[in-house]
Design a protein that fits this description.
It is a single chain. The chain is mainly α and 113 residues long. It has 2 domains: 1-38; 49-113, no CATH class. It has helices spanning 3-33, 41-47, 50-64, 75-89, 95-110; strands at residues 65-66, 69-70. Helix 4 packs antiparallel against helix 5. The radius of gyration is 24 Å and the shape is flat.
Length: 113
């Protein structure tokens, strides 16, 4: 086995070890700190919005972009707007899903968008 191949293998294992130890240290620090490691109340309140922010960061590009650019006549955007309006008006968890899918199907299949 050549020296270059051994050197690459060594760097690979060192990199994996560094990544693994970093992951263990960052996640394990919260477990080891326990109750002493409480977050400030302002940060706890701000973190309540993290799941909604992450979900919108995943969904919004798909709603806004159609192909290579932003298209205001995108059927996914129209269906998304219907979902937002229905979800804020009524508290039924199934109604936004059903109406959003109905709008999307009508615009894609019926209107040919």
């Amino acid at each position: 086995m050549s020296e270059a191949v051994m050197s690459e293998g060594l760097w690979l294992w060192l990199t994996l070890l560094a990544i693994g130890s970093t992951t263990i240290m960052t996640r394990g620090s919260f477990i080891l700190a326990g109750e002493k490691g409480r977050l400030p109340p302002a940060l706890q309140r701000a973190l309540r919005y993290a799941p909604a922010a992450a979900l919108s960061a995943l969904v919004m590009p798909d709603l806004l972009l159609d192909g290579a650019g932003v298209d205001p006549f995108n059927p996914k955007l129209a269906a998304g707007l219907v979902v937002v309006v229905v979800a804020t008006r009524w508290r039924n968890p199934w109604l936004p899903f059903l109406l959003g899918m109905a709008v999307l199907l009508v615009l894609r299949k019926g209107a040919g968008w």
